[in-house]
Amino acid sequence: MMSSCIQISGGRVVDPANGRDEVGELCAVDGVVSESLNEQQKESASKLDATGLVVAPGLVDIHVHFREPGQTHKETIATGSRAAAAGGFTTVVGMPNTTPPADNVSTVQHIKDIIERDALVKVYPTGTITLGQEGQHLAPIGSLQRAGVVAITDDGFCVQNNEIMRRAVEYANMFDLVVMDHCQDMDMTEGAVINEGHWSLRLGLRGWPSAAEEIVVSRNVILSNLTGGRIHLQHITSGNAVDIIRRAKSRGVRVSAEVTPHHLHLTDQCLSSYNTNFKMNPPLRSESDRQMLIEGLLDGTIDCIGTDHAPHSDYEKDQEFDRAPNGVTGLETALAVCLEVLYQNGRCTLNEVIAWLTCKAAETLRLKAGRLSPGDPADITVFDPDEPWVVEADQFQSRSANSPWIGETLKGKVKCTLVDGKVVWGCLPSLNG
How far apart are CA 188 and CA 209, in angstroms? Predict the structure, then answer.
């Protein structure tokens, strides 16, 4: 049988995991990265021209909400994975706060069946920490691991009972699973909708103190140190939390952390017009916090970037600020936003941005993704880091368009996304013939 071969030429190949950054060629045979093609393979290969573009590993997002089952008016695995492909993501990890939540083997298997049928990219499920995400009784962690979850989390909620959280980390460690935690002291945030500070006072909205995050981050550092288990701290927003994580890592505590593109780019001042597309959980913080998040990325305290892609329908977001749901979409704008905040502003190299969105994200959950070594899946993203584009709601591939960047011009456009060597989004000029 004739092999299926692809040859991408002329682009700047940036593969941080392998230390590669050069204008060159990238080849794949039967969906797997190949060091080179033989003469017969070259003759039959699909030849794509990436001149002037960046060729990188497919982006990896370990924090998305695809809403299926139960909330398909917001998103489905089909539409969410199409949004991922449009944003250059080839591997994503779905959160378990579906309806019903993924707290049992049957629901996890149902989600996997939908993924198998509908997903354009690689979607990995997570399971809950507690039954119903209610924080009262542990979910069957061992059974969930055997069913194929890559981590456990009650994301959207935070386990408030420290004893239950301790046992969850101990059990998860037995099955070599990471516990991912949404760090929030619920007593301190009841009724809160915006960062506690100047803008909450000025707008007359209930403030959400950053201490509510910092207390739970500290709790998780203590529990990781006590149990030896791995805890991943989701969507960190507080500068003080970054410092807590930095000191914990210096002592060898097994914690990791992520930050979102929107928390890297935006602050609570954006809420001055009461636009609910800027309402999220955790909330946008101060400029000081934003700068400390960037510093945390640069010095390795924060491991990776995750979008926390959280789609909501237009009629849900079109309510009074207090009543509108938290969350923003992020998959289709993430690369451009990160390039603007980190690379185009001179804070870091292109290699570093790609690493945070590929190999470092994959390493956090030990996924086989985010690198272009020979023998790895040919999951590839090709993009133009300099191409400007206007964010328009009717152009989103996601079912929802609750983006804070609607109407804004961003720079950095995905041109083509390949999964296992097959184009799933966009196209490149062909050199065949």
Answer: 7
Tell me the pLDDT tens digit for each residue of 293-342: 999 999 999 999 999 999 999 999 999 999 999 999 999 999 999 999 99
Distance CA 88, CA 268 (A): 28
- At 430, is the pLDDT very low, low, confident or very high (cuts 50, 70, 90)? confident
Nearest-angstrom CA–CA distance, 34 and 351: 22
Type of residue at 249 = K
Q: What does residue 411 show for φ and ψ, rounded to 5 degrees?
A: -125, 125
What average pLDDT does the structure give for the chain? 97
| 38 Cβ neighbours under 8 A, 6+ residues apart | none
**Closest to 55 (Cα-Cα) out of 92, 94, 6, 93:** 6
Cβ atoms of residues 93 and 124 within 8 Å: yes
Type of residue at 301: T
CA pair distance 291, 416, nearest whole angstrom: 32
Q: Structure pTM?
A: 0.97
One-letter identity of residue 193? V
Task: Report how far apart the first and last C-alpha atoms of the chain are (Å, whole number).
Answer: 22
State both tokens at 124.
């990995």
pLDDT digits (tens, 9 = 90+) for 79-109: 999 999 999 999 999 999 999 999 999 999 9
- Give the span between the Cα atoms of 79 and 81, in whole angstroms: 6
Distance of CA 237 to the CA centre of its chain: 15
- Whether residue 141 contacts residue 107, with contact meaning beta carbons closer than 8 Å, is answered with no
Chain segment 219-236, per-residue pLDDT in tens: 999 999 999 999 999 999
113 is catalytic: no
Query: In whole angstroms, how far apart are CA 23 and each of 53, 147, 387, 397?
Result: 9, 42, 19, 31
- Catalytic site residue from 308, 322, 379, 420: 308
Token pair recorded at residue 348: 């870091």
pLDDT at 433: 53
Dist CA 387 CA 53 (whole Å): 10
Give the largest CA-CA distance in the chain: 70
- Any idea what the Cα angle at residue 326 is, between residues 323 and 328, rounded to 5°? 135
Altogether, the residues listed in the chain come to a count of: 433
CA dist 403 and 331 (Å) reads 10
**What is the three-class DSSP state of 61?**
strand
